[in-house]
Amino acid sequence: MNINRNDPCHCGSGKKYKKCCMEKDRVRERAQSARSEPEEQNPPADYGKALKPLDLEESHPPSKPAKAKKPNPHAEALTARWEEFQEQDYEGQVALFLKTLEEPQLMDDEMAFEMLNTLHPQTVEHREYQRYESLVEQLRERLPKIYDESAHYYLKNLLTNAVITGRLDRIPVLMNELTPRAYKDIDIFNKVVDQLAYHGQLNVLREALESAWPAVKKSPHIVPWGVEEFAIKTVKFLIFDYLEQHGADASGRSKLFKRLASYSEIVPERIANTMALIAGQAGRQWTREDFTFPPELKSRDDGGKAISLPETVQDNLFDLSVDFQGHLWREEKVPLVKSELAREELVVYLVERLAGELEPRKSMFEAVVHPRRPGPPKRSPTFYLSGDDDSVHWLCPDRTTLDAFLAQLLDFLSVFPYKVSALYEAIPSWLGFLESRQLISASARSQTLRDLHGLKSGLLSILRKVQSDPALLSAIENWEKETSPRGS
Question: Is this model's pTM higher than 0.85 or not?
Answer without folding.
Answer: no
